[in-house]
Amino acid sequence: MIGINHMSRVKAYLELIRYPLFGIPIVATLPGALIASEGQWTWRVAAALVIASFGYFAGMIKNDYFHRETDAVTNPDRPLPSHRLTPKQALVPASIIYSLCVIFGFMLEVKAGLLVMGLVAISHLYNAFFKARGILGSITLPLGIGLLNVFGALVVIGSVPRLVWYAFAATTLYDIGTHITTTFKDITRDKEHGITTTPVQLGIRPALLFSAAATILAFVVALLPYWLEDSLAYKSYAVWVVLGLLAAVITRIPLYMQPTEKNGYFALKGSMIGSILFFPCLMGAQVPILVSVVIILPLLLVTVLLLRTSRQEV
Question: Could you state, in order of their start, the residue ranges of all structural domains in the chain?
Fold first, then answer.
């Protein structure tokens, strides 16, 4: 019985952190870290990935903590409303993880520690205030995801190379487009319970147009170094931009043609796959294409497998 209870709790925590999305903080941090290290795998690159991942997981836990009352109505099977975990069992570990991320950030680089504090603040603002505030939520969270590129660079060398700012802008814009499309999967529920998401606030068509504009701009920004930066080690990185674009277009077309919850969830899965392909694209400016494949392909395959086999909503 003790073993069963222990495994049940572990499963509940895995659901809290949205384990199928484990690759997102990794691919969002990799470009900044590897660009800063000039393509060299160092212990600082690994440290940046670990801190970013745990900070991301803590944010996911805090999300469910702050929205447990709403989830009791809209998602009663989640760990907190189903009472598989208590609010304290969510709040305490998330707070400890956040604190450790800040401490280790400062130990590695003062500016990295300050940015971790900023990222924790962004996560708190999103979870506690902006998630149900329409466009504010669709901008706040992606800003934090984009800043993981900057964090990776700061951990590695304490400064931010110009190429990392391209990665920051492209990641943020892509994630804005993704965030808006993902809210369509719950749009009926959100309207019924007075939850203001971007489609509810702006209207379906304006929200889709805003999402499309942000996504297109993200791919344009990602390709700017290809045309403007002569010092790139490898211009083959553009392959990942194209693949990310294809993933986004193919999986979002049904949503644009028929904005239903089913198509919204399909677009969500496509966006996650597109993120794995697109977020790390500019690291390919510093490492050979085969190295990029070795990094990205396993993350992509595991993400696809988890999205197909996991029964939880992500």
Answer: 2-309
